[in-house]
Amino acid sequence: MITYQVEYNLSPTEFKDVLVKSTLGERRPVDDLDRINAMVENANLIITARDNTKLIGVSRSITDFVYCTYLSDLAIDEDYQKRGIGKELIRLTKQETPKATLILLAAPAAENYYPHIGMTKTEVCFLLKDLNHLK
Predict the structure, then answer these.
(1) In the predicted model, what is the mean pLDDT of the chain?
(2) Which of 6, 3, 2, 33 is nearest to 17 (CA)?
(3) Which of 25, 36, 58, 110 could share a disulfide with 20, CB 3.0–4.6 Å?
């Protein structure tokens, strides 16, 4: 049975493991435990999906709870994908922040998934990864 909950003390090791078992492990600093630890500690809304006690999915967000929620990581163990777990984690994230607009950047492999569940694609996102690129 899959259970969902807001989790306040997610283990960085469990978080890393689900990233590796999902397609996000390729684009996250899974070999840098200090960064993984900081990612968990500094997120202020984490919702998990568990099969009994095994972590199989996580929605990790940064939010002010009233205007915007940045869903930074939506990771589902590949063995559990295509069962509606990601959609439920998104629904629960939005439920926790009903007044806020939920924002996420899609992984290339998931780009077609989000419109399929009712999210709107936008073309107005900008990234700055290195301060040296700021003009």
Answers:
(1) 92
(2) 33
(3) 25
Strands 101-103 and 68-76: what pairing?
Answer: parallel
Which residues, at least 6 apart from 57, have a Cβ–Cβ distance to it below 8 Å?
18, 48, 49, 74, 75, 76, 77, 80, 85, 86, 89
pLDDT in tens, 60-85: 999 999 999 999 999 999 999 999 99
Whole-Å CA distances, 119 to 27, 57, 64, 89 = 22, 19, 20, 14
**Closest alpha carbon to 43 in 70, 14, 18:** 70
pLDDT at res. 108: 78
Q: Which of 110, 26, 37, 129 is nearest to 71 (CA)?
A: 110
Pairing of strands 45-51, 54-63: antiparallel
